[in-house]
Design a protein that fits this description.
Blueprint: H1 2-29, H2 36-64, H3 70-97, E1 120-121, E2 124-125, H4 126-144, H5 154-177, H6 181-185, H7 193-211, H8 227-246, H9 254-281, H10 287-301, H11 310-335, H12 343-358, H13 370-402, H14 409-414, H15 416-421
Antiparallel strand pairs: 1-2
Helix pairs in contact: 2-3, 2-4, 2-8, 3-4, 3-5, 4-7, 5-7, 5-13, 7-12, 7-13, 8-9, 8-10, 9-10, 9-11, 10-11, 10-12, 11-12, 12-13
Length: 430
């Protein structure tokens, strides 16, 4: 009896091993299958990132300008969401994600003509991936709006952002995430340090210098008209950024969870760092400072969120607060440029700090070592600065000689809400 039981046990074990090996072999040969869990998370992440622009960024920027210009900010963010949507589906996705060279993709996916309801990108529908990345192209040029707030023509803004998006955002996307130059270098940019923040920040600096200072700058009259709007906008950005960073894993897994954790840690550290500086220097921590510090931390952790450590997130958050604070205050005053809402000071500088420190604080050190990775990160930062700066200069020059960059002094005095859009945000007698 014992011998029979032993034979049966051996047979069952052999059959189990055969089934297991067949299943593994089959799995290795199969294409990735749709994951309902990953898809559900990415649908949520996509909505979160869109929330960052509408209404997050719109309120954050809208509160920082004067009352006579708040609608112009909301209008620019709103319209850019529509314009960038069309650009992305017509040719943007193809030039960014298509097969191509070191700098651009090809035109094989124009109008998304390759895609069906069953098309997959990894374990999620390609349609979800396309829409998720569409929210990135929406927010990136909208970030630049803050640099020339209260003085740029609406038509010039459209010409500039369309040209800059086509010739700077799309190629940098391809270099980093589409198998181009940065991918060959093994640059780590998990969620858009170079693609979004340095890219937009440098363009913002070029734009505010070329357009010139606001009338009355610097002066006490150029103060935020609605700080609660700004704090609410920053809060929406903070919440939405979990979709931005954790969503960039494109899966509901441990890396996404770690990206969410490091995002929260860095943001908290940056808020505390910014407020401590205000407390030490001006003796009063401000609500605008807390909101700006939060955005600085969110920006800086973006490229590192999927690869950094808990300690790294703390350091990146504090470092971004210090660097962005002094750039948005001392450096801007010393150089005399009027970056209205500190786009370069927060997104450009925060992105640079984050991109470089990404190479320092790694959970898994690459074979080529930390120093080499830091040098790789430096190279990607340098290329992004030069590329974005040159494209921004050319795009602004084209806008200047076609429609003109700036509204008249009279229109600036009346405010862009009335002069550009014929509307008023607040009607006191209603």
């Amino acid at each position: 009896m014992a011998q029979h039981m032993k034979k049966i046990q051996i047979l069952v074990t052999a059959l189990a091993m055969l089934v297991l090996s067949t299943g593994v072999a089959g799995a290795q040969g199969e294409e990735p299958a749709l994951s309902a869990g990953d898809t559900s998370w990415m649908l949520v992440a996509t909505v979160l990132v869109l929330l960052m622009t509408l209404p997050g960024l719109a309120l954050f920027y809208g509160g920082l300008v004067r009352a006579k210009n708040v609608l112009s900010i909301l209008m620019q963010c709103f319209v850019l969401a529509a314009v960038m949507t069309i650009i992305w589906i017509v040719y943007g996705y193809s030039l960014a994600a298509g097969e191509g060279g070191k700098f651009f993709g090809d035109f094989s996916m124009v109008m998304l003509n390759h895609m069906t309801a069953d098309s997959l990108s990894g374990t999620i529908p390609e349609s979800v991936f396309v829409t998720f990345q569409m929210t990135f192209i929406i927010i990136t040029p909208a970030l630049i709006v803050g640099a020339f707030a209260e003085r740029m023509k609406f038509s010039a803004m459209l010409i500039f952002t369309i040209l800059w998006t086509t010739f700077s955002y799309l190629p940098i996307w391809h270099m980093a995430w589409g198998g181009g130059l940065f991918a060959d270098w093994k640059v780590i940019d998990f969620a858009g340090g170079t693609v979004v923040h340095i890219n937009a920040g440098v363009a913002a600096l070029v734009a505010c210098i070329m357009i010139g200072k606001r009338k009355g700058y610097p002066g006490t009259s150029l103060t935020p008209h609605n700080v609660p709007f700004t704090v609410i906008g920053a809060a929406l950005l903070w919440v939405g950024w979990f979709g931005f960073n954790a969503g960039s894993e494109l899966a509901a897994d441990g890396v996404a969870g770690f990206a969410m954790l490091t995002t929260q840690i860095a943001t908290g550290a940056a808020v505390i760092g910014w407020l401590l500086l205000e407390w030490i220097i001006s003796k009063k921590p401000t609500a605008v400072g807390a909101a700006t510090g939060a955005v600085a931390g969110l920006v800086a952790i973006t490229p590192a969120s999927g690869s950094t450590t808990v300690t790294g997130a703390l350091v990146i958050g504090f470092a971004s607060a210090i660097a962005c604070y002094f750039c948005a205050t001392s450096l801007k005053r010393a150089l005399g440029y009027d970056d209205s809402l500190d786009v370069f000071g927060v997104h450009g500088v925060g992105g640079i700090i984050g991109a470089i420190l990404t190479g320092v604080f790694l959970r898994e050190v690459p074979d080529h070592g930390v120093l080499t990775q830091v040098l790789i990160q430096f190279k990607s930062v340098g290329v992004t600065i030069v590329w974005s700066g040159v494209v921004a200069f050319v795009a602004l020059t084209i806008a200047k000689y076609t429609v003109g960059l700036r509204v008249s002094e009279e229109e600036e005095d009346h405010g862009l809400d009335q002069s550009s859009h014929g509307e008023t945000a607040y009607t006191l007698d209603s």
